[in-house]
Write a structure and sequence with these properties.
It is globular, with a radius of gyration of 23 Å. The relative contact order is 0.16. The chain has about 575 residues and is an alpha+beta fold. It folds into three domains: about 210 residues, 3-Layer(bba) Sandwich (FAD/NAD(P)-binding domain), CATH 3.50.50; about 110 residues, Alpha-Beta Complex (Flavocytochrome C3, Chain A, domain 1), CATH 3.90.700; about 130 residues, Methane Monooxygenase Hydroxylase, Chain G, domain 1 (Up-down Bundle). About 35% of the residues lie in helices and about 20% in strands. It has 16 helices and 22 strands.
Length: about 575
């Protein structure tokens, strides 16, 4: 007897109920009230996605005097000369509009005596955003969007011509098989954590900077469907407060904290790596930190002893809006930043399209190369440093395009052709366990995957350094691990979800290694340090490295030219 099937039908399915997914759903319903829209969310949209706990800063926003063009120039500098300028400009024109829209819905944005938004750095504004997700969830409910909480998407369902006609998923608590027939799908699943071994092992392995529940499912579904993907070699690695993995930007930008090595010496004192008034790109800040460690001057710290009592109080309030664990850790461990510098550390690498630029290759309307599939936010590639504001702008753009191109839902005959095979694939780990077979549990496969990536694909223990021999070893070991997929077991519905998370991670890992191998230069030191190709080479490598998995399962590499607009 097979799993219980649950069927739905809609014009639009949004996979992922984070802030971008919620905004897109509301946008579509505002402009097409009769359209049937479904959000598919692995958790619950009231507290899911990267901003589940809240947020204290909205980036990006154009303050007076800034323009979409000045924003693009800054992003291009941050991305070391490689960015989809069309995507950045189209989003930048909508940044302020979408932030002000969410404020009208109830987001509390801090203002000065004149009513202007309080800035956070050049492109951010301060907010009291602890209740951001509940606020958006209420707006989704108000617009009568159908929400399927606790349902994890597993694969797109495609027609013979390769156009999307639906999506399959599993109930993470009831192990039901969900089939949603739809003509349009918007993927907003976020990026990918969990490819590499966590800095905090065993029970603390989820204490990481990026959402640990974003395990690359949107990427993996696109990869398996043959979508063109871009820039997976531009990993993102954050500098954070040690042990709590929270951002250091509040301390550096709002409190004037600066970086110290263990000898009390300030490092990274120069503002930039070029003749420019722009700050160091994030990758070079990370690289400078790694050099301090490599040359024996670590651990490193943020100088915070200059903070006033008022600044410390405001600092804690900011962290309570975004990462309450920071304040709890300080209280329980007697940490007083005004009396002692705060130690920092770097994270494990992430594949993410909001800080980095890994993801689907999309056009200006946020269409992917799969007919009927759109992507925005962290899962969409080509536009780094989009942060929250950029992800929201992309959600609005995608939503408006979807409304303009709504099509009727296809008949059942094409949909049914792919359902049986996907059902077999999805429930195979559970079926093996029910038949009493021996095999591999999800956590065991995850540990092996993370060990391969850690040791051979530039993890923390290697100071993120990459070389062709090690990457080729990673490729070989991942291929061997792929041969073990047929032994994967799941004892219950939760383990079945975990099994598919690790299968998604494996597909993302294979593509990531191919990208890291292909780019034979070091464009983003720290993020992507090729010790065998240590120089940046704009002459040959100022281009996008894309990939696509063909019908035989092989990953084909594609080069796309750079187009500079300003």
């Amino acid at each position: 007897m097979g799993p219980e099937r649950v069927h739905f039908e809609a014009e639009v399915v949004i996979i992922g109920g984070g802030t971008a997914g919620c905004l897109a759903a509301v946008t579509i319903k505002e402009q097409a009230p009769t359209a049937r829209v479904i959000i598919m969310e692995k958790a619950d949209i009231r507290r899911s996605g990267c901003l589940a706990a809240g947020v204290n800063v909205i980036k990006a926003y154009l303050h007076p005097g800034e323009t979409p063009e000045s924003f693009l120039k800054d992003i291009r500098h941050e991305a070391r000369g490689l960015v989809r300028e069309d995507l950045v400009l189209s989003a930048a024109k909508r940044l302020n509009e979408v932030v002000e829209k969410v404020e009208r819905w109830g987001l509390s944005i801090l203002k000065n005596a004149n009513g202007a938004y309080l800035p956070h750095g050049r492109w951010g504004i301060k907010v009291d955003g602890e209740k951001l997700k509940p606020l958006l969830a209420e707006k989704v409910k108000e617009k009568e969007v159908k929400v399927l909480n606790r349902v994890a998407a597993t694969n797109y369902l495609l027609s013979k011509e390769g156009r999307v006609i639906g999506v399959a998923g599993i109930g993470v608590r009831d192990a039901c098989f969900y089939i949603i027939k739809a003509s349009t799908i918007l993927c907003t699943t976020g990026g990918c954590a969990g490819l590499y071994r966590s800095r905090n092992p065993v029970d603390g392995h989820h204490q990481i900077w990026y959402s640990p529940f974003n395990t690359g499912s949107g990427y993996a579904m696109g990869i398996r469907a043959g979508a063109e993907m871009t820039s997976f070699e531009m990993r993102f690695i954050a500098l954070t407060i040690k042990d709590v993995a929270s951002s250091i930007s509040i301390l550096t930008r709002d409190c004037g904290a600066y970086l110290l090595n263990s000898y009390g010496q300030q490092y990274l004192t120069s503002k930039n790596d070029t003749v420019s008034d722009l700050p160091f790109p994030s990758c070079l800040s990370l690289f400078a930190y790694l050099q301090e460690l490599k040359e024996g001057r670590g651990p490193c710290f943020l100088e915070t002893r200059q903070l006033t009592d008022k600044q410390v109080r405001e600092l804690k309030e900011s962290y309570l809006n975004e990462n309450p664990a920071t304040v709890l850790y300080w209280v329980t461990n007697g940490v007083e930043p005004e009396k002692k510098p705060v130690e920092i550390s770097s994270t494990e690498p992430y594949i993410v399209g909001g800080h980095g630029q890994a993801g689907y290759w999309i056009d200006q309307e946020r269409r992917t190369t799969i007919g009927g599939v759109y992507a925005c936010g962290d899962v969409a590639g080509g536009y780094p440093s989009k942060y929250i504001g950029g992800s929201w702008a992309e959600a609005i753009i995608a939503g408006e395009t979807i409304v303009d191109q709504l099509t009727s839902v296809v008949g059942d005959h094409e949909l049914m052709a792919g359902i049986f095979l996907e059902e077999q694939r999805v429930f195979a780990p559970l079926e093996r366990y029910r038949r009493g077979l021996t095999g591999i549990e999800p956590w065991e496969m995850e540990e092996r995957l993370q060990k391969i990536m850690e040791e051979y694909a530039g993890g923390i223990s290697c100071r993120y350094e990459l070389s062709e021999p090690r990457l080729l070893r990673a490729k070989e070991d991942l291929s061997q691990l792929n041969d073990q997929v047929s032994y994967l077991l799941a004892k219950n519905s939760h383990q079945l979800m975990k099994a598919h998370e690790v299968l998604d991670l494996l597909d993302v890992a294979k593509v990531t290694v191919e990208h890291l191998l292909y780019r034979r230069e070091t464009r983003w030191p720290g993020f992507q340090t090729r010790v065998d190709y240590p120089e940046r080479c704009d002459l040959h490598w100022r281009k996008f490295i894309n990939s696509r998995r063909n019908h035989n399962g092989a990953i084909e590499m594609i080069e796309r030219p750079y187009h500079q607009l300003i």
